[in-house]
Amino acid sequence: VDNLAPTTQTYGSVLKACSRSSLRGSPKCKDEALRIALMTFEKLRKAPGVPIDSYKYTPLFTVIEQCTKGETYVKLITEVFRLCCEDGVLGDNHLHNLRRFAPKDVFRN
Fold this sequence. Notes:
Blueprint: H1 8-24, H2 27-46, H3 54-67, H4 70-86, H5 92-101, H6 105-108
Helix pairs in contact: 1-2, 1-3, 2-3, 3-4, 3-5
């Protein structure tokens, strides 16, 4: 039991739960979903030997879209878009959603 560690599925499940909570939750629930999603994603990126795929980004983009506004939204969506590109997992579904929700200048940078 001492050597147990989260897997890519564990992280993915937490991110999906945050995404679902962000779609229907109260403002307090949405704040908590955003906090947990960002913390989980940060731990995922630091986890040795745990691959990041496009399926981990999809719920994170949803949480950011549903739980933030204004400057916070632009800052987070820009940073996550950059990381997604760096990780080489930017997919058509991400681009489709970003075109619908993200400010146009996110793509210029």
